[in-house]
Amino acid sequence: MLKIVYPDLDTIGEGDIRGRYKDMKKSTILCYFTTLILSVLPVFHSLSGELTDEFSSPQLKEDLWVIEQVGGASFEIKDGKLILSAPKATDGIILYYAEEVSEPGFSLEVKLDSSGIVNSGYVTTMKIMTPPVVSDVYNPLRLGQFRLKADSWRIRDENIQTILDGAVKDEMHTYKIELDVDTLRFYFDGEEVAEIPKVAETRFFCISPDPYADDYSGEIVIEYIKVSAPWVAVEAAGKLATSWGKMKNSH
After folding, report:
1. Domain check: are 29 and 75 in the same one?
2. What CA–CA distance (Å, rounded) separates 167 from 176?
3. What does the alpha-carbon distance between residue 154 and residue 145 come to, in Å, rounded to a whole number?
4. Same domain assignment for residues 235 and 174
5. Total structural domains within the chain
6. What is the DSSP letter of 234?
7. What are the pLDDT digits (tens) for 1-51?
8. Which of 11, 75, 98, 151 is spaced 20 to 30 A from 54 at the CA atom?
9. Cα–Cα distance measured from residue 195 to residue 110, given in angstroms and rounded to the nearest whole number
């Protein structure tokens, strides 16, 4: 049988009661503090400022990417890689990051194989989100960019003037464009290679093996795209926690 023994209150002094009350109060505060820390930690983890799409799902994440295509152009996710293809000159395809960017601190990094490009492809920024159109319409909309060929790359400034040329091998390479307050920085395989003055206040980031509806053709194979910014959030498991627009509105 359970026997409950109550303390003899007559034998407990006032100091003992106050001491026990203080101990209970400290214990309660410590418990609340520990609970708070444990609940906040996942939030700090989610506000890591970076997300990477490795195309592990057969479906393109529509909250992240917008595909614009014309003619017989196509895309598919195969063996964990995104393939953008425009087989003929009348085809064209562009992959856009879904949100317009104006805040400094944003960057887009892509690891891709450009060996399938026939003419020229791009990791570029644009004034608007346009589908593939004729070159005379498309070209004035371009901003700072990597122009890609099967065996080389070229950095151009906001006025599409050549800044730097580089060579590539027939394999995957990383290209990154980072938006700062007054400049754009360009990175190739993790190394900063150029910096240009920023002219436009807002822009869209995009990738294409062929952005024209009347010229060019080719294919790009993408291994991953990484988006970084202080307001980008991911869940602890690496899945998307919120969209750019929701985070931007909360800041």
Report:
1. no
2. 16
3. 8
4. yes
5. 2
6. B
7. 545 555 555 555 555 545 554 555 555 545 444 444 444 344 333 344 899
8. 151
9. 18
**Around Cβ 202, how many Cβ atoms within 10 Å?**
12
| pTM higher than 0.70 | yes
Q: Where are the beta strands (DSSP E) in 64-141?
A: 65-70, 74-78, 81-86, 92-97, 107-113, 121-126
Q: Count other C-beta atoms under 10 Å from residue 104's C-beta.
A: 14
Assign 210 to helix, strand or coil. Answer: strand
b/e per residue 172-188 (b: at least 16 CB within 10 A): bbbbbbbbeeeebbbbb
pLDDT per position as a tens digit, 74-130: 999 999 999 999 999 999 999 999 999 999 999 999 999 999 999 999 999 999 999
Domain annotation covers residue 212: yes
The rounded distance, in Å, linking the Cα atoms of 109 and 123 is 9
Tokens 């099967």 belong to 150
Q: Do 90 and 71 touch, CB atoms closer than 8 A?
A: yes
pLDDT at 144: 98
Residue indicated by tokens 């929701």:
246
39 SS3 class: helix
CB-based contacts of 52: which residues, under 8 Å, 6+ apart? Answer: 224, 225, 226, 227, 238
Instruction: Give the end-to-end CA distance of the chain in Å, rounded to a whole number.
Output: 61
What's the domain range around 75? 50-249
